[in-house]
Write a structure and sequence with these properties.
single chain, Alpha-Beta Plaits, about 50% helix, 4-stranded antiparallel beta sheet, 2 domains, alpha+beta, about 260 residues
Length: about 260
């Protein structure tokens, strides 16, 4: 079946959503979020697009962009290819990082733009990652009114009246089932040991720590990379394999070094 043609926006403003393939994590460490923001800044300059808002969540991304010379598909391809290539090299993985096709919704009126900004900025609160949207470090919300390289704040203020932005800034965040631990760490709830053990068994084909440690070193490195890509922490992998946390980190780093040497 042929794909439906992407709907174009008369205003050239789009709400873009990128998700990890199989809903896997696309950000595992703070450095990953920082890298994506650096790539977004570079693509913004190269394509001439305007970044009105963004929010980076552990396994998906929200962007509010206004295109210029390049169509939205070209802009997002630049962005996705650059970040996915870096992520795959870092974590010694291959294949797609994002779902096959990004979503883009045209934004054609001011009221919808304001509603969209509120939705994008409140994503971390709804997900339990922050008590208030301004507290979340990987959203443009905290950079309103500043000269942040990844954000076109001046253009946003041309489109949205200052009074409206002030009202958005002062709004209380919606009620959300966030926990103190999630807010304190800025990270989503992790896998239970049972769920992580199932991932380990699926990736390695074994269910006992002794059997895992008897596997070929290359396979053990690949399994650790797979679990890290799925968002399983080093400490939990160590607990499930009877390895030290430093030993798990070594396997992961060795896999990355072997990938770079190819």
């Amino acid at each position: 079946m042929a794909r439906q043609a992407r709907q174009l926006s008369e205003s050239a403003i789009y709400h873009v959503m990128l998700r990890g393939i199989n809903r896997d994590a696309i950000f595992l460490e703070d450095a990953d979020y920082g890298r994506f923001i650096a790539v977004l800044t570079a693509v913004r300059l190269a394509s001439g697009c305007t970044v009105l808002a963004y929010c980076l969540m552990p396994n998906h991304i929200h962007l509010v962009l206004q295109t210029a010379g390049e169509p939205i598909g070209t802009v997002i391809k630049r962005l996705g290819v650059r970040y996915a290539g870096w992520f795959n090299r870092k974590y010694a993985r291959v294949g797609h990082l994002f779902q096959d096709r990004f979503k883009s919704i045209p934004v054609e009126d001011d009221a919808y733009l304001v509603t969209l900004l509120r939705y994008v900025w409140n994503n971390p609160v709804e997900a339990g990652l922050a008590a208030h949207c301004a507290d979340y470090p990987w959203s443009s919300r905290r950079h309103l009114g500043t000269a942040w390289p990844a954000l076109d704040d001046a253009r946003l203020r041309e489109l949205v009246p200052e009074q409206t932005l002030s009202e958005l800034r002062e709004e209380a965040s919606p009620a959300a089932p966030w926990s103190e631990k999630a807010v304190r760490t800025g990270r989503p709830p992790r896998f239970t040991d049972e769920a992580a053990a199932l991932l380990l068994a699926q990736a390695s084909g074994v269910t006992e720590p002794a059997l895992f440690n008897a596997l070929d070193a290359l396979l053990r490195r690949q399994v650790v990379c797979e679990l890290r890509t799925r968002g399983v922490p080093y400490r939990q992998i160590a607990r499930l394999t009877n390895l030290s946390e430093s030993g798990v980190r070594w396997l992961h780093q060795a896999a990355g070094s072997a990938e770079e040497a190819r």
